[in-house]
Amino acid sequence: MLNAFADAQIARARRDRRLVGACLVLLVALAWLYLAIMAEATAAMENPLLSSRAMWLMPMGEWGAREFALGLAMWMVMMVGMMVPSAAPMLFAYLNVSRSRPAALSPIAATAAFLLGYLLVWGGFSVVATAAQWALHETELLGPTMRSSSAVLNALLLIAAGVYQFLSIKNVCLSKCRLPLGFLLTEWRDGWTGAVRMGLRHGAFCVGCCWLLMALLFVAGVMNLLWIALLSAAVLVEKALPFGRQAARAVGGLMIAAGVGVLVLG
Hints:
Layout: H1 2-46, H2 65-99, H3 107-138, H4 151-164, H5 168-178, H6 180-187, H7 191-215, H8 217-220, H9 225-240, H10 244-265
Helix pairs in contact: 1-2, 2-3, 2-9, 3-7, 4-10, 5-7, 9-10
């Protein structure tokens, strides 16, 4: 009897993990599909021989409420595509722990609430990033393809992001992202609101860890898919792999060197 109950619990846990994993894969895949469409539209802006049916999704020309909304949607979807993969270990750890906690919510519903809180924080970051894009556009520091036209700005962003990789605040935030069980033990809250609050807390640490890396999107182009993929990989490595801290510092050193190079040669 006990063995049957244990087997049923294990089977249910596996089913929940598969379902959450499938949902995360689908969410990230849809985000990257959107980014690919936007990248194709950006390429069409650079090359008049190309055409794109997605140009109406791009924030172009004089900015107003419509352009801000389009830019915000672009940044929010981009943050989903870039940050959800690196948050997956935390989400699966939360799913496992929530199974052992008495709660009115099912583990899957609680995990969805946690993810909601996490994405709300990145939504707030997206508002700031969109406002920054608008300001750079108005000062003509950002071209129509959403790439910085200023070597000085590029150098400053690279150097600032590189230096940030070595600061204690970066290490504190990164440690919260690298140790899912430690975070869950110290930050646990029960219920729907508790799950959302935990997601908000984790999202805040995640933004604190990665916000300057995201600012580097202005350097090579906000819709440069290769650059987006490289930054996503850097975030995933420093959060999920055993040598993540060393990788973060190595990336920081490379960014400082690149920034100095741009400043000298630009």
